[in-house]
Structures are given as C-alpha cells and as structure tokens.
Amino acid sequence: MPKLGLHGARGGFSLVQSRSATTPVALRLFSVLNRPPPNYPGHVPLTTIERGALAVGSALGSIINLRRADLIAALGEATATPYFVYRLRDAMLSDPTGRRILRDRPRLTSKTLHMPYLRTLPENSVGREYARWLDREGVSPDTRDSVKYIDDEECAYVMQRYRECHDFYHALTGLPVFMEGELALKALEFLNTLLPMTGLSLFAFIKMKPAEKERFLSIYFPWAVRNGLGSKELINVYWEEVLEKDVNELRAELHIEQPPDLRQIRRMIRQQKKREKEQQQTSS
C-alpha cells in the first residue's frame, strides 16, 4: 500500500495520488502562490478550499442554468475525489474488459468512431442506434470538456471515459437530452457509478413542471432505480468493440431495460391537448 505524505508550503491542501502509487491518495500541501506542476496536459491542481468553492459554485450555477455543460463537468470533477473516481477506477481494474480499456485508453470522438461508417451499419446495431440518436438530438461526440481538476492522471482518464460514454447510455436507453430524459439517465448513472455529480443533478427536479414531475416519479425514476441497481458496471463496456452488436442483445447482457419512449409519450400528450382544445372551440 502506498505511503501517504505531506508536501508543499503554507495554504490549503489538495488530495492527489503520487505518480508511483497504484491506489489511494497522497496528501500534498501547497498554496495558490506555490502551485505544483500539472500531472498531465491541461491538469489544474487545486487546494481543498478551491475544490470546495468549485463544487459549490458549479452546483449552484448548473441548477440555475441547466445548459451549462461546463459547470456540470466541473461539478463532476470537484466532487469525484478523493474517493468516488478511485472506486470507479478500481471497478475497471477488477474487470478484464475494464483493464483493457485502462491499458488502451481509447477516446470516443467523431473521428475515432468514424460516424459515416456507423450510419451504414445494420438496423438495430449499437453503432447505428448511437449514430441515429446523435443525429436526432443534434449532439456531437466532440463536445465533451477535457478533464482538468482530477489530480491522478489515470483517474482523470476514467472520468474522461465516463464523460464520453454518456451518449452511448442515451442511445442504449433511447432517452432524449431534455430535462426528463437527462435526469432519468443521471439517476441510473448515480446508482451505477456512485459519482456524486450524477446524484446532485437530480436537484434540477425542482425546475420541472408538475406534469413532468408526476411522470418522472411514476415512470422514469422507478425505472432508473431498478436498472441502476441491477445493471452491470457500464464503465466496463468497450463500446468500440460492440458497435456491430445487436442493441437488444447488449441490453440483455448489461441488464438494462429500455424505458417507455419519452418523446412518444410527450407527443401523445400534446396531440391529446390539441384535440381537447379543438373540441372546446367547436362546442363554443
């Protein structure tokens, strides 16, 4: 087991894993005026006070404006250490496929996934469903922020991998990107990954309309709990190797049940309201 040590000067402290350590965390003391060098390109070492301020500020900001993906990303990194991202990394190390992902360190981008090829795959394949979901939602795999506030370089990759896999979870479940779909998926992710940000995101529930809250509590939250607790560790899916696989077969392997089509439900409700309005106008 690696030794824990104190390094640095006066001021706040940050938890980081020494580069020679393979598990937990070494303590490094430093001040904002005497910041240590980065552990990897783009890394920003933070003191404990800075990390706490980042967590609180990004949490409040992301609740006020749910479209601030940068704040959600910062919240995820600020709250992932010192325990949760290490737990996720250990889950990968305990799985043969997870270990290969950590060794290979693939990235999920439009170039590495070859999007034109995915659109030519057979119907109901994982890759075709993923490409279809991206096209329908107007989303790109290239919009994920790079991790910079996690001190351990390997754990930073784990967080980056989780972040880039998120759209595959959307495609696997069929959940759209608007609030109901995002919160349902975040609830599933929280129970599957234990990353605090995914749980904290559920506070956005307070901004839902009454009908959306009722639908979420009656349909999508129970689905998320059932599937989040019963599914395999999704971080260990080597998505690049299952693109040609039948999506229903993969759902069965991962113990993921596809939820009711949220877009279809909302469409039916809109149509029902339209018919009722037309009937009222006709009767009047």
From TrEMBL:
What is catalyzed by this enzyme?
a 4-hydroxy-3-methoxy-5-(all-trans-polyprenyl)benzoate + H(+) = a 2-methoxy-6-(all-trans-polyprenyl)phenol + CO2
Membrane topology field: Peripheral membrane protein
Q: What Gene Ontology molecular-function terms does this entry list?
A: 4-hydroxy-3-methoxy-5-polyprenylbenzoate decarboxylase activity; zinc ion binding
Q: Which residues bind Zn(2+)?
A: H166, D167, H170, E182
Which domain of life does this protein belong to?
A: Eukaryota
The Swiss-Prot or TrEMBL record lists the needed cofactor(s) as: Zn(2+)
Keyword set, alphabetical order: Lyase, Membrane, Metal-binding, Mitochondrion, Mitochondrion inner membrane, Ubiquinone biosynthesis, Zinc
Localization in the cell: Mitochondrion inner membrane
Which pathway does the protein contribute to? Cofactor biosynthesis; ubiquinone biosynthesis
Q: Which GO terms describe its cellular component?
A: extrinsic component of mitochondrial inner membrane
The answer to whether UniProt assigns keyword Transferase to this entry is no
Its function? Lyase that catalyzes the C1-decarboxylation of 4-hydroxy-3-methoxy-5-(all-trans-polyprenyl)benzoic acid into 2-methoxy-6-(all-trans-polyprenyl)phenol during ubiquinone biosynthesis.
The UniProt entry's sequence similarity note says: Belongs to the COQ4 family.
**PANTHER family documented for this protein:** UBIQUINONE BIOSYNTHESIS PROTEIN, UBIQUINONE BIOSYNTHESIS PROTEIN COQ4 HOMOLOG, MITOCHONDRIAL
Q: How does it assemble?
A: Component of a multi-subunit COQ enzyme complex, composed of at least COQ3, COQ4, COQ5, COQ6, COQ7 and COQ9.
**This protein is called what?**
4-hydroxy-3-methoxy-5-polyprenylbenzoate decarboxylase
